Amino acid sequence: MAQRRGGATTVVEASEGDGRTMDEAKLRERLSKIEALFAGATTEGERVAAAEARQRIQARLESAERADPAVEYRFTLGDGWARKVFVALLRRYNLKPYRYRGQRRTTVMVKVPKRFVDETLWPEFEQIDAALQTYLEEVTDRIISETIHGDSSEATEVAEAPKLGAGSVGVDK
SS3 string of 74-114? Predict the structure, then answer.
């Protein structure tokens, strides 16, 4: 069973250079570079050729399947965006994501060799997810500050919560 876990991964271009928000073209380029990194690309030409990178990763998966039989994994991805990315990544490598009746929508099941999960699938997912989360956060902050209010920072933390019944109303969404 695999749960979303932390770990050391190589960071690909953490800086956006000119300080402006990441645009969609930069995001696409960054995602292609992440894919090339996990495919073992060694030249700039290989990094540009995403189809070749995908083929190398597919070959690595097939090799792992011969050496290490596929086992059933359960991934729990509470974030809807992360789940979509992970399912798409599985499908890219011709893996079949599923869940059993009664499992939550946050659960993704897949049969895959452990070595492929540890060395390629999960590290690649973590980097793609981080890049997309950064992009979505930047876009959200920009839209909020331009259309709702310029200050999109977190709420201020105060020392102590008031006692119940002292004029507080709670709303959970």
Answer: EEECCCHHHHHHHHHHHHHCCCCCECCCCCCCCEEEEEECH
- How does pLDDT run across 94-124, given as a tens digit for each residue? 899 999 999 999 999 999 989 889 988 999 9
Q: What is the mean pLDDT of residues 56-83?
A: 83
Task: Scan for tokens 């700039």, then name that residue.
Answer: 44
Domain membership of residue 165 (yes or no) is no
The arithmetic mean of pLDDT across residues 65-84, rounded, is 88
Cβ–Cβ contacts within 10 Å for residue 95, how many?
A: 17
CA distance 168 to 162: 7
Burial zone of 124 (CB within 10 Å; 0-12 exposed, 13-18 middle, 19+ buried): buried
Partners of 74 in beta bridges = 109
Residue 31 forms part of a structural domain = yes
pTM: 0.61
DSSP symbol at 71:
E
Q: Is residue 79 in some structural domain?
A: yes
Cα(131)–Cα(58) distance, rounded to whole angstroms? Answer: 22
Measure the CA–CA gap between 46 and 36, rounded to whole angstroms: 7
